[in-house]
Amino acid sequence: MLITRCNQSACKKNETNISLEETLRPLWKLTYYGGILLDWCHPISNPHPILRVMQYASITIFSSLIFCVMLFELIQLFIEIENMPNIHTVIPNLIWFIPFLLAIPTHIYYLRRRRDLLMFFEDWQLFERKFTESESGCLMCNSKRIHLIMYAVYVVMTVGSLVSLGFEISNNPTATYLISTYKCVRETVSLYLIGSIHLSCILIVWIILSLSDFVPAFVYYHSALAVSCLERDAKKTFLKLLRSDEVKYISPLFVENLNQADSCLLKRSFKQPRDRASSIRLIWVRFESLNQMVGRANYLFGFFMVYGYLVSVFMVTTLLYSVLYNLEDALKMRFAGSIVAYLLNFIAMIVRFTSCTILSSQLYRSVEKFSISLNFLLSQHWEELSRGERELLRSFISRLQSDHLVASPLGLFTITTTTFLTVFGLVVSYVIVLLQSK
After folding, report:
1. How does pLDDT run across 346-383, given as a tens digit for each residue?
2. pTM
3. CA dist 2 → 159, 170, 433 (Å)
4. What is the dihedral of CA 279, 280, 284, 290, to 10 degrees?
5. In this structure, what DSSP letter does residue 256 have?
6. In whole angstroms, what is the distance from residue 427 CA to residue 321 CA?
7. Is 409 within 8 Å of 305 (Cβ atoms)?
8. Which of 141, 124, 128, 117 has the alpha carbon at shortest distance from 43?
9. What is the helix (H) or strand (E) element at residue 311, kind and residue range?
10. Are 229 and 135 in contact (CB under 8 A)?
11. Which of 61, 62, 96, 98 is the least buried, fewest Cβ under 10 Å from its Cβ?
């Protein structure tokens, strides 16, 4: 029987802890019970055949709807490009088309890689369980507040975008990116129905795009929390040697993949207090387990993360250009209606990009902070450590600094706090070029 001891303060905070699966559960329920996707995060065992048929039918309908609308937007975009007097005339069509270009591959990816996703989240759940069994610290103490804020922001963003686009449809029903641009359609189909079709597609696209943002961002954020937990354990190791009544029991599953020497080293902690060397070694082993999970996440979610970053840069650039392009006319006419939709969607894209980048970059910051803490502990306790403990700690610090544990989609780039500066530079450069073409 596994025994986990925790102090009183940790137990009080335990009510607010939330795992990665619980963090993603609202989005999973929305996509699963809304008929957009199958079970991709939490497996549903033996669903009713009728329910399964209804899900497949719903997925087919939604997929066909957004594909048909994307095809319509693509045709209208080519027509506008052929007749455009300047680049600004095709930007509204691009803004309506590009989100579909990201949503459809993401949708297909979640359907095709469903088993890989389920296996990853199952392994992550096992990893979290082993992590918390071996130590009493709260792994996800602050995640609940963060995930509530993120979901609230996304709901507000989605509602604001739908409202602004609804006004755009009602004020300009003959726009080329709307089905009502054709007179025969306007005369036979109600404008409310046309608007409902477009807004329904946009809503589905927003939900699918949230998968490309939420899922990897929270995986990296929970990884950062795990690193912070390792840092706290290292500090406690140097504060005092563990007494026999403070020994944390280790799950046998945690050492099943270790070699015989490592297994014996960890199993001795069941019978006697751990010294500093074995405690540091245990922290290192858990760090390597976390590194394996992050590596899997980098390649499992890397495709649509890279694709999503490219789309985000493009959308932010075009939306900012559209706001600046129409700003002069809006000031002259003292009417902001021409830029409201662009401005609201620009703010939504900025918030979306910023929030996900901040969450993902927490992993890099946590590892840097962990490395700094270990260097500080090594300098402060140099005289107390044996030669073997010094070499072990220095090897661990070298491991942290030589091969950074960081969010790196497909290994193409790393997500750190400097990502903002890179993207900001790209956006400013592109906007200047577009404004010069005006």
Report:
1. 888 888 888 888 888 888 888 888 888 888 888 877 77
2. 0.81
3. 47, 62, 63
4. 60
5. T
6. 10
7. yes
8. 117
9. helix 302-333
10. yes
11. 61
Burial class (CB in 10 A: 0-12, 13-18, 19+), 86: exposed
Buried b (16+ CB within 10 A) or exposed e, 147-177: beebeeebeebbeebbebbbebbeebbeebb
Residue carrying the six token digits 């989609």: 409
First to last CA, the chain: 72
Q: How far apart are CA 168 and CA 179, in angstroms?
A: 13
Q: What is the DSSP letter of 18?
A: -
CA pair distance 243, 158, nearest whole angstrom: 53
356 vs 213: CA distance, rounded Å: 6
- Which segments of 64-210 are extended strands (E)? none
| C-beta atoms surrounding 226 within 10 Å | 25
- The structure tokens 């990897």 sit at 216
CA distance 49 to 70: 31
pLDDT tens track for 260-304:
444 444 444 443 345 677 778 888 888 888 888 999 999 999 888
Residue 224 near residue 363, CB atoms below 8 Å: yes
Q: Return the structure tokens found at 175.
A: 């726009």
